[in-house]
Amino acid sequence: MNKLLRRAYPVCLLLCLTAVFYACEGHSPEKTVIRFWALGAEGDNIRQLMPEFERRNPGITVKVQSLPWTAAHEKLLTSYAGNSMPDLFQLGNTWIPEFQVLGAIEDLRPWINTSRVVSELSFFPGVWATNRADSAIVGIPWYVDTRVLFYRKDLCADAGYVQPPATWDEWKDLARKLKQAAVREGRRAFAILLPTNEWAPPTILALQRGASFLKEQNTRGAFSDSLFRDAFEFYCSFFAEKLAPIGVTQVSNVYQGFAEGFFAMYITGPWNVGEFRRRLPPEMRDRWMTAPLPAPGPGGTGVSLAGGSSLAMARATSDKDAVWKLIEYLSDTPQQREFYRITGNLPARKEVWEDTLLTSDPYLHAFRIQLGALASPPAIPQWEQIAMKVQDYAEVGSVGKTPVPEILARLDRDVDVILEKRRWLIFGE
Amino acid sequence: MLFLAPALTAIGLFFFVPVLAALLLSFTDFDIYALGNFSVARFVGLRNYLQIAGDPLFWKALKNTLYFLLAGGPLSIAVSLGAALLLNAKMVRWKPVFRFVYFAPVVTTLVAVAVVWRFVYHPRFGLLNYALGLVGINPIDWLGDPNWAMPAMIILAVWKNFGYNMIIFIAGLQNIPESLYEAANIDGAGSWECFRRITLPLLAPTTMFITIITMIGYFQFFAEPYVMTQGGPLNSTLSIVMLMYQQGFRWWSMGYAAAIAFVLFLFILLASVVQTRLQRRRAG
Questions:
Q1: Cα separation of B260 and A231, whole Å?
Q2: In principle, which of A171, A278, A427, B166 could form an S-S bond with B83, CB 3.0–4.6 Å?
Q3: Does the pLDDT value for residue A6 go beyond 60?
Q4: ipTM
Q5: Best of B37, B59, B250 to disrupt the A interface by mutation (most A CBs within 10 Å)?
């Protein structure tokens, strides 16, 4: 090889690489790119709605990235720390206070005030409230999510409950009867599935009992209070009486477990309406139903979590008007309806609930009732961390080797440590 | 010095500066509030370290990590040595095939492996419980029972990692001169005597290297529980690195996480020094 060629070779390579890079970045400079992070099934499915948005807004391209729920919280925080937040992202509404404290999310009031599509009255009040931080509105509800009771109609009817249980006493009575029936038939089965890797079930029971979780401006744990203890003891009793399986791996496939009658009740959310339909065998179709949660005492529905996800705009975003256009598009009635159709997530927009697509679905009836009885745990940045502690200690409670007062005292102690900084910021101690 | 400068700059910039920064971080209460507004980060001296000493979760994690290390480490080395001896034996055919088969888990992505092993460990339909059932052992809830989750992790880790040490052992074995065995045979030594008097002593440097590398690796036990159990059930598979990850990246208690990192570093340093001393004394 001659010398000149050898010397020219790296230069050529460099030129080629540069050309490749330019080709990749080759779109016209005035086109706005919105990076949108969505979680789980929403992330996989929301792409379907994007071509229509891009057709209506030729100057905007949307890049959807799907994150798994288990890693999303870490990813979002890390992206904030690394200055690489997406422009628009889905935010579980218990995470909102955290991102608000960081100053990572934009106050949307300037856009809401002039919007014809988004206004407070279009959404469920309990859910809209979780997006409020002081007076700012930092997220637009995308879908609502609450938990109701999924139950096997046939098994419960055999146990004497044609109507679902309405109070805690009935609930426990039904559970015992289901267990007795299984024991009689020689089946290894349980009455209810309360997965110990979820903080929602014990939290919901405590909300129903009216527990406050925290005290002194949310700077100290109040888990040893009698209200929380009542709820926690009720939760643990399902495990102590062998009405619920202990540990999370006994049921690795919820749908199979439910179809086999391994458990007959399950507190879960709207996403499972679609999953149960798809995954349960056809002969199961008329053997299950949803019901609003039982209440601690007679009269009324037990409250459930005001959950769901919101759409939040990163404060660091450059083209905020373009991002708002996408938020508006996703919040409008046709898209909310379509979003429900492809993901089964319940629309946050009230108007959509009048649509026959939703009214004709018998499984959604319980959710309509439950959406009228919602409650939220304390809205502080540390809630998620506290919720994990609740989950950890609920797991300890489910094993039943430690007395409940001791568990709750340890929970209070751990939570007080988590809230030390908050106490310092509020009281300066 | 001039020629070393680029390398030193790179090491300084990308190794010593971050380590130093982390050390400083471990004396602060850098958290989610400080991430938003740096001025509320406080210098707290040794509080993080004291808090670690009083954190039951840390002791639990340390206990779990030591359990994993002390049970899994020797087991892994023994399995590696056994496999290496088998593969080095003269009568074994298809050696490259076996080497490949035993080494394959090492280069397979852990996440993919974990998915398969979740099926293997399934309490009702898993292969392992099926096999145990054949010999009359009742099904075990491998990943759901706090007593069995760690043994399950150890089995997985040993299976996943023994191939790497096996390759190093094979290299060590091949360095032992054949003439020594021939001489021993003439003197009437059996195979056990040969193993004890020739193979083991001559493998000592290799064994020491493998012991230290394995120990350091096993101290940093993280990926298996992260993928399979998230530290559960009942924190029975929560390792020190897992705890550090949760504190640092889930809750953003960076100061506390950094302190955990340095405590772990001290443990590894201490264990390495003790190990080296012990083996040197035995050699001398």
A1: 35
A2: B166
A3: no
A4: 0.74
A5: B250
